[in-house]
Design a protein that fits this description.
Bound molecules: guanosine-5'-diphosphate
Distance between the termini: 44 Å
Helix content: 55-70%
Radius of gyration: 30 Å
CATH architecture of the largest domain: 3-Layer(aba) Sandwich
CATH superfamily of the largest domain: P-loop containing nucleotide triphosphate hydrolases
Number of strands: 8
CATH topology of the largest domain: Rossmann fold
């Protein structure tokens, strides 16, 4: 899914990854490439323009934590903006009581409407509903037969009649559903190869006659902007409640998925990701964004890093460092923050330049506990000034923390090395860590 877009965006991020900071000029270069990638993915032009502006603004305003690469920060920003563009999440189906809840499916011929009717039926059965499918596509010769076959496969009843009046079939079907205790009715209407007045009139008449509670447009995502344009036209006639995008499994570009919500204002409810009847998924913009970027791990990394090492704290450490007042308490806090981020090695491995140096290092819970015990056995003065810790003090601290004097010396050494290296690299939290473990 979306392979070509993913590949192009990733090469943009890579081109930024070697540089130290996000600046006007490198972000402009990167955004030119992002824009190109999106246009090639067949995303609507106006949307691309606005999207790139939003990303650029967010990138220039972003605090780049020293430990992260600009490429990583940009990935997170693009991820968030993609999520916004496709969102918000709205996969609810509004059921009415008393039923039946009527769901009308509209869309062009071949978009996957009939298949989707059965997929949706299956989905509803899994939610404890008793749907009825209505073969109201009287246009495509094999549509009724196809729905009947799908009905047999899924065990979902199908209503059909041998007449050419779509409005009457729909009306009769609702009555039939009421009589048979079906609580949801899925109406598969007729499409055409292209939008034409006859089709629009027919589906509008059916809608008028049975006043569906939900009207979903089924769209073939592989047709890109054509899908989006037809969605716009359907929306003007039918007041859609949402869109079901099919064939995402075969869509390398992603243009329809990215534009349809922004163009029509209607949420994507479900996506079809295969021909089989269980291949219907609720649409989640955040998951889709990370699928597009193929970078879920980096996004998580950046989020966690931002949470734990917020700019303020980094600045505070830096100031202390400059004043020479970075003590054991700060050191401990730094270690705790690292611990909170999860497996230290796993996190840092993701950071270019750090992973290799951390191969044999891990900070597990027990090591951190020991560090804490040692620091807590120090007097406040000792915590501020490790040079005070002479052999008698070392013995006292070891006794107080249930450790050996050796453990105390090694922590003091580690602390000093960290502090000195942090000074040298001017304070980035991870700079300190890197020094700590590489010496
Ligand atoms: P309709 O004319 O809109 O009713 O379209 P159909 O339901 O007959 O579907 C047209 C073709 O698209 C069929 O071959 C389906 O199997 C296929 N199709 C539908 N949804 C999907 C999907 O999500 N993924 C894939 N790969 N094929 C799909």
């Amino acid at each position: 899914m979306f392979e070509s877009l993913t590949e192009k965006l990733n090469s943009v991020f890579k081109s930024l990854s070697g540089r130290g900071r996000i600046t006007e000029s490198n972000i402009s270069d990167a955004m030119r490439d992002v824009r190109k990638a999106l246009l090639e993915a067949d995303v609507n032009y106006n949307i691309v323009k606005q999207f790139c502006k939003d990303v650029r603004d967010a990138a220039l305003g972003a605090e780049v934590i020293k430990s992260l690469h600009p490429g990583q920060v940009l990935i997170k920003i693009v991820n968030d903006e993609l999520t916004k563009l496709m969102g918000p999440v709205d996969t609810r189906i509004y059921f009415v009581s008393p039923g039946p809840t009527i769901i009308l499916l509209a869309g062009l011929q071949g978009c996957g409407k009939t298949t989707t009717a059965a997929k949706l039926g299956n989905y509803l059965v899994s939610k404890g509903k008793r749907p009825l499918m209505v073969a109201d596509d009287l246009q495509r010769p094999a549509a009724i037969e196809q729905l009947k076959v799908l009905g047999e496969q899924t065990g979902i009843p199908v209503y059909s009649e041998e007449i050419k009046d779509a409005v009457r079939v729909a009306r009769n079907a609702i009555k039939h559903a009421k009589d048979s205790g079906n609580d949801v009715v899925i109406v598969d209407t007729a499409g055409r190869l292209h939008i034409d007045e006859e089709m629009m009139t027919e589906v509008a008449n059916v809608a008028k006659a049975i006043t569906p509670h939900q009207i979903y447009l089924v769209c073939d995502s592989m047709t890109g902007q054509d899908a989006v344009n037809s969605a716009k036209e359907f929306n003007e006639r039918l007041e859609l409640d949402g869109v079901i995008l099919t064939k995402l499994d075969g869509d390398a570009r992603g243009g329809a998925a990215l534009s349809v919500k922004a163009v029509t204002g209607k949420p994507i409810k479900f996506i079809g990701v295969g021909e089989k009847l269980d291949k219907l998924e609720e649409f989640h913009p955040d998951r889709m964004a990370s699928r597009i970027l193929g970078m879920g791990d980096v996004v998580t990394l950046v989020e966690k890093a931002q949470e734990q090492f917020d700019a303020e704290e980094a600045a505070r450490f830096q100031k202390k460092m400059a004043k020479g007042s970075f003590g054991f308490d700060d050191f401990l806090k730094q270690m705790q923050a690292v611990k909170k981020m999860g497996g230290l090695k796993d996190m840092l491995k993701l950071m270019p330049g750090l992973g290799g140096q951390l191969k044999d290092v891990d900070l597990d819970g027990s090591e951190l506990k020991q560090m804490e015990a040692i620091v807590h056995s120090m007097t406040p003065k000792e915590r501020r000034d490790p040079d005070l810790i002479d052999p008698p003090r070392r013995r006292r601290i070891a006794a107080g923390s249930g450790t050996q004097p050796n453990d105390v010396s090694s922590l003091v050494k580690t602390f000093k090395r960290s502090r000195d290296m942090m000074k040298a690299v001017s304070g980035g939290s991870f700079g300190g860590l890197k020094a700590l473990f590489s010496g």
